[in-house]
Amino acid sequence: MLAIVALTPAAPTLADVSSDLATPWPPALQPVLTLVIFVSVLAFAAAVVAFPVSVYARRRVARRLRPTAAESGSLLWAYGRDALVGTVFALALAVVVRVSLWIGGGGWWLLMSVWLALLSLVALRFVGAGLVASGETRPLGRPALAAHLTALSEQACRQAVDVRVWTPTSGGATAAVTGVGRTGHVLLSSEMVRDWADDEIAVVVAHELSHHARHDLGRRVAVDTGLWVATLGVTDRTVALIAPMVGVGSVADLAALPLLAVVAGVLWVVARPLRLAQSRAHERLADQFALELTGNPEAFTRAIRRLGEAHLAEERPSRWTRWFFHQHPTVEERLRLSARQQ
Is 254 in contact with 134 (CB distance < 8 Å)? Predict the structure, then answer.
């Protein structure tokens, strides 16, 4: 849809309509309102176009993982919430692009890369605290397990890392780590805490603690920053060449936003295997770390098999699937690592 808008007169037309609708407002507010209208219309259109596919995909996953979650009302509510979040995110990103163009001129892409890096670090720094403050997480309600996990975190990170329970929107058994520097939380899904044995949870937490101890989230932002510089730099040159062909004056025009998004999106997909390769390397080290920290390869094997079943993971995916979709090593690789420790 963005490509159609970007490569036809639709983008200049929408930019003109957005500007006309903002005209009755004070001059100081008109640029902001024009941008809000322009991006909101595109985001709403994208949500409408994607709705049937999203409902179909959600129903398939819900029926396989949690049969009771396939109700139309809950799916519609979840989609509406995600669409609203996506619109806010698109607006924020558009603001960053426009401000970068205004301040940075021809070097906007470099300035934007720096801002994206800073925003990523800020988000990583505070997302865990935000989830705690909003009440979306709760303390682990199993005292013996909590004490054991605290000891593990002190051994792994030389400090206690808060382990909390949360309910992810996708459901299922999962875990994540948040925070950079000395701040961090390990989040365990409520399903995992409810159904898994203590030793299985311990190896999962040990795995997440490795990411925190080795500063993997910060390393990921560093690699992403380099890719942003390359991607946005090429995007700037590409859009400058294409823009006149589709009726857009320059990269700085509001109507160029869809074209910027399309070109940057394509280049980001091309760069995806590099990001996933880094992620898989981090995950391999985290698996090794968890096995050494807990000394329990049997529990690790059970945990990996359960995660693979919960997320419908292929044990032996094709090479292309691994390159373009897998953040973790394959189930077979992880089980092989565990077998070597037994």
Answer: no
This prediction has a pTM of: 0.82
**Residue 295 DSSP label:** -
pLDDT in tens, the chain (342 residues): 999 999 999 999 999 999 999 999 999 999 999 999 999 999 999 988 888 887 787 777 666 655 444 455 566 777 788 888 889 999 999 999 999 999 999 999 999 999 999 989 888 888 877 877 777 889 988 899 999 999 999 999 988 889 999 887 666 789 999 888 777 889 999 999 999 999 999 999 999 999 999 999 999 999 999 999 999 999 999 999 999 998 898 999 999 999 999 999 999 999 999 999 999 999 999 999 999 999 999 999 999 999 988 877 787 889 899 999 999 999 999 999 999 987
SS3 185: strand
Q: Quick one: how far is CA 274 from the chain centroid?
A: 16
Query: What token pair was written down for 144?
Result: 């013996």
Token digits for 71?
């109700």
Minimal CA–CA distance to 258: which of 11, 40, 48?
A: 11
Distance CA 54, CA 4 (A): 20
Starting at the edge strand that comes first in sequence, how are the strands of the sheet with 175-178 ordered?
137-139, 162-166, 185-189, 175-178
Query: What is the rounded CA–CA span in Å between residue 131 and residue 105?
Result: 37
Q: Do residues 275 and 227 touch, judged by C-beta distance below 8 A?
A: yes
| Cβ contact 115:96 at 8 Å | yes
Q: Which two tokens stand for residue 176?
A: 């994540």
DSSP 8-state assignment for residue 163:
E
Per-state percent for the chain, helix, strand, coil, to nearest 5: 75, 5, 20
